[in-house]
UniProtKB/TrEMBL annotation:
Catalytic EC class: transferase
InterPro entries: DNA_methylase_N6_adenine_CS, HemK-like, N5-glutamine_MTase, PrmC_N, RF_methyltr_PrmC, SAM-dependent_MTases_sf, Small_mtfrase_dom
MF term (GO), any: methyltransferase activity
UniProt protein name: peptide chain release factor N(5)-glutamine methyltransferase
Length: 302
């Protein structure tokens, strides 16, 4: 780091600061490095709210002491090196939830909120009094908890194989919805034999990055590879396995919702159709790109 960048990380010496002064300084420090995918105003604000322990700077104290100011300076310095905001604050937001976050576990993205929405809609409209929803590859538990909190009648089974992710999901579930969500540590491609033919909704954000692709953003490079790469050059080994498992788990007329890369839409629609699913189609994410496949388990004619 050159001298100019070092100088940007020096706070003016003072016994106290106003939140406005710290926010302005933090925003300038983040703007100076032009981090890919970062939003200087938003990140500087969230880091300051985290340091001050408030939900909004509107409710922040009038004066901030030197110790808190130094903590903010350190947080800004970490963010300038592309450490994910969620790893600094230990929290991430998903729909209406505030979840714990930590290094070694995939940071849930805003685009996945639409995957959760379609699963929630399917659970709300199915005929079961207590819809059974299975979240395969639950990671931090974000989708499972969104469904459980927004469809209070549901029973959600969250499946994850990775130990670190399971530990984080368990903490998030204990914090938010320990009754409706049951965490199962197992391989998503073979889990829940006892629930075959009983699930009303299967939802998944599985690893799907193609083996030939390499994340260019520093933040994405800090996600665990196990949560990213779907297997094979096209990244479709695990997504296809998830579809096959969903076909076994779903009751007739049940719904599959699965996230995928934009480039994989055509292949996965074809695969779902070959598996016997009906009403197979893709749906857009928040940016309008085809990023999830939605399909219905066939109803057996009597």
């Amino acid at each position: 780091m050159n001298r100019a960048l070092n100088e940007q990380l020096v706070l003016p010496r003072s016994a106290t600061y106003t939140p406005r002064e710290l926010f302005a300084w933090g925003r300038r420090a983040l703007q100076a490095v032009n981090l890919e995918g970062a939003h200087a105003d938003q990140d500087a604000r969230e880091l300051l709210e985290w340091v001050l322990g408030c939900d909004s700077l509107v409710s922040a104290p009038d004066q901030v002491g030197a110790r808190a100011a130094e903590r903010y300076r350190c947080a800004i310095a970490s963010r300038r090196t592309s450490i994910p905001l969620q790893h600094i604050t230990g929290r991430m937001y998903f729909r209406m939830l505030t979840l714990r976050a930590e290094p070694g576990v995939f940071v849930v993205r805003p685009e996945t909120e639409m995957v959760a929405q379609h699963a929630i809609d399917a659970a709300r409209t199915c005929s079961a009094d207590e819809p059974v929803v299975v979240d395969l590859c639950t990671g931090s538990g974000a989708i499972a908890l969104a469904v459980a909190t927004e469809v209070p009648a549901s029973r959600v089974l969250a499946v994850e194989i990775d130990e670190a992710a399971c530990q984080l999901a368990a903490r998030n579930i204990a914090d938010i919805e320990p009754v409706r969500v049951h965490l199962v540590r197992a391989d998503a491609l073979s889990a829940l034999v006892e629930y075959e033919g009983r699930a009303d909704v299967v939802v998944s954000n599985p690893p799907y990055v193609p083996g030939s692709a390499h994340p260019t953003q520093r933040e994405a490079q800090l996600d665990p590879p196990r949560a990213l790469y779907g297997g094979g050059e096209d990244g479709l080994v695990i997504p296809r396995g998830i579809m096959t498992r969903a076909r076994a788990l779903l009751a007739p007329g049940g719904t599959l919702v699965m996230e995928h890369a934009e480039s994989q839409a055509e292949d996965l629609v074809a695969y779902a159709t070959a598996q016997g699913f009906t009403n197979v189609h893709t749906a857009p994410d928040l940016t309008g790109r085809p990023r999830m496949v939605i399909a219905t388990a066939p109803v057996v004619e009597q």
